[in-house]
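Thought: the user wants the 3D structure for the chain below. I'll pass the sequence to the structure tool as-is, report back what it returns, then summarize two notable features.
Action: structure_tool
Action Input:
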Amino acid sequence: MSEDQVLTILGPPFKTYERDSAPEDYYVEGYAKKVRPITGKVFIYIGSEPILYVYFDESHRVEETFIGGS
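Observation:
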């Protein structure tokens, strides 16, 4: 899935980080996380409870997602 398709389906994320400019600890405090580097970019979505991390590769294609609770 492309970055544009994710934006069409889910709308704008709560946070976006690029690999080159993200802080070392880019995770949202208080929510579950999967510790991993950012290959290209990550979108972070927060719903009423779960958090969603959508990781994109350098070609702007989804390479992994992670859903966790608080």
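Final Answer: Structure generated. Residues 3-68 form a domain with the Beta-lactamase Inhibitory Protein; Chain:B, domain 1 fold (CATH 3.30.1450.10). The longest helix spans residues 3-10.
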